[in-house]
């Protein structure tokens, strides 16, 4: 079933739904572009998988043995979680070790939380997903310890790089690269202090070396490389993802662990496009090609690829302002642009609204804002897109969000909203609005696009 992944680490794990077996959270059903004329595709439809691709003959083969011919193919196969085994730690199969990528993982996580009420949870990883999971576990009255190799949460994965882990990692033949994270130590410290006030313990600068198990194969403790041992009733692993490229190995140019595309999302084979988490595309602001793992880029890349296919003459190069966001406890932040250059902090770091600008080569290239108004979020997006010259970074820091508001007001460009951010998570019996995104809707639809055309129109 297509579903909103961001919801799975947020609203889906709220205690009222985790505790209730009679009114569990459930995701809304929704139409995708393949469901024409109000047709809702069945779960079985989505279980049909492509098992091989022959680009030379322009065919796909499905698990049921069907061969589908295409004229144009869009690859939107997304990503899969990185398993601990990639770091030479075994045990991922244990009943109380959880990963989180899809609805089945989320349902399993809920069941594991239920099975160890008020127990100890170890969260491995320090990225935004791990932070969201830790917040959800605390809200479910678990005793939470986070373990990550960096000095701070959501910081650059320096430890892994220095120790050479990432250089050697291979899943299905694809080499992974380190993804830089965006919190500065000051921003990270703010969130860590709050998490600690809610009871979360942090163990930094190390990673698990092994697990201890009981006679039922359940983890009872996590042993760390620094010699520490943490008793655990459950473990949640959020150490990153790797793009699903194995079907396409050797058929297209790959780079940075993903499928390399041009500014119209065309791969090295002009009849094949790649979008979403799997695509490595040119980002002007970065001045390089890059792979992103966020719904906004998944949705917009899919939209642009469709336009490039349907109206090639009217569609130019993709001009994208990267947007990342996250939500945990009552926090909600957005980041636009690039975190290159000097970071200038602004706002009230003892309060609830603060941020940072990144100034590179005398220009604003990135903006982070926690707790802003919709107008402020739009302003930092506009200002980052404009890349105004900054002569005095300290002054920009003193102005804070007023700087972005002024720049934005003077130029008044159009900032599209993050479509779908107000999509609903349908809850029974009441309906609440949750923070979620529709990006996945479109991206998931697109992964089925070639399949649908293949079934209905054997030739394009
Ligand atoms: C728990 C969680 C929370 C998140 N929170 C946020 C957030 O707060 N903000 C944010 O910006 N991003 C968030 N993300 C990231 C975001 O969900 C992804 O960036 C987005 O889903 C990527 O979309 P995609 O379509 O490229 O890939 P996916 O969503 O991974 O979709 C790929 C689809 O392809 C299908 N597929 C794969 N292989 C095959 C095959 N061989 N045959 C047929 N189908 C196949 C898969 O089953 C899947 O349906 C979150 C992700 C998770 C897991």
UniProtKB/TrEMBL annotation:
Ranges for the Monodehydroascorbate reductase 3-like C-terminal domain?
A: 321-404
**What cofactors are annotated for this protein?**
FAD
Entry-linked InterPro entries: FAD-oxidoreductase/Apoptosis (IPR050446), FAD/NAD-bd_sf (IPR036188), FAD/NAD-binding_dom (IPR023753), FAD/NAD-linked_Rdtase_dimer_sf (IPR016156), MDHAR3-like_C (IPR048618)
Question: Recorded GO terms, molecular function?
Answer: monodehydroascorbate reductase (NADH) activity
Q: Which residues cross the membrane?
A: 432-454
Q: What is its EC number?
A: 1.6.5.4
Name the enzyme's class.
oxidoreductase
Example GO CC term: the record gives:
cytoplasm
Q: Pfam families recorded for this chain?
A: MDHAR3-like_C, Pyr_redox_2
Per UniProt, residues of the FAD/NAD(P)-binding domain are 44-301
UniProt keywords (A-Z) are: FAD, Flavoprotein, Membrane, NAD, Oxidoreductase, Redox-active center, Transmembrane, Transmembrane helix
Q: Which family does it belong to?
A: Belongs to the FAD-dependent oxidoreductase family.
Protein known as: monodehydroascorbate reductase (NADH)
